[in-house]
Amino acid sequence: MNDSTIDEADRRLLELLQADASRSNQALAEAAHLSAATCLRRVRRLRQLGLIEREVALLNPERLAAAIGHGLTALVELTLDRQGSEHLDALEQRLVAEPAVQQCYRVSPGPDFVLVVHVPDMPAYLDLSRRLFTADLNVRNVKAYFNTKRSKFEPRLPLAR
């Protein structure tokens, strides 16, 4: 097997880890039908290849809201006047450095960026909007869509051939 290719056992491991990365190596090995040593070696290799970027805890927004308040999630489209790579790169650096920006995508056609933003409330969104969008003379258009209900959130990537 080539160092950068993955086989069916690797796919099984990736599927299992996407469903629950908190299980022990022993439990993961059993579910993947591998020995514990083989499982550990393969998972390390998948990390080294960069296929496993990181492991995080996914928080339940409804239960978290009961503890700390709902917050505000917005999907934001940004269109720039000038789309030269230096302009796109400069704004992208500012966007990814902002903790309230959870996801940042360069897209085409249409707007130049689509963001997923989470802030405590509308005043916080207005502050973020002023700092990131209004203050940048190259930002031509901003469209924000505010979340009223999350119907689905699935960060799992499909691995079928």
A few lines on this structure:
This protein has six helices and four strands, in the order H-H-H-H-E-H-E-E-H-E. It has 161 residues and is an alpha+beta fold.
Q: Would you write up a description of this structure?
A:
With 161 residues, the chain is of the alpha+beta class. It folds into two domains: 8-48, Arc Repressor Mutant, subunit A (Orthogonal Bundle); 61-146, Lrp/AsnC effector binding domain/regulation of amino acid metabolism (RAM) domain (Alpha-Beta Plaits). The protein is 42% helix and 19% strand. The protein is built from six helices and four strands; from the N terminus they run H-H-H-H-E-H-E-E-H-E. It has helices spanning 8-19, 25-32, 36-48, 61-68, 85-97, 122-134, and strands spanning 72-80, 101-106, 113-119, 139-146. It has a four-stranded antiparallel sheet with strand order 2-3-1-4, covered by helices on one side. Strand 2 and strand 3 (113-119) form a beta hairpin. Helix 1 (8-19) crosses helix 2 (25-32) and helix 2 (25-32) crosses helix 3 (36-48). The longest helix has 13 residues, at 36-48. It is globular. The two termini are 17 Å apart. The mean pLDDT is 93.
Jot down its keywords.
19% strand, 2 domains, globular, Arc Repressor Mutant, subunit A, 6 helices, 161 residues, 4 strands, Alpha-Beta Plaits, four-stranded antiparallel beta sheet, alpha+beta
Write down the overall geometry: globular
Secondary-structure element series: HHHHEHEEHE
- CATH level 1 name of the largest domain: Alpha Beta
- Largest beta sheet: what is the strand line-up? 2-3-1-4
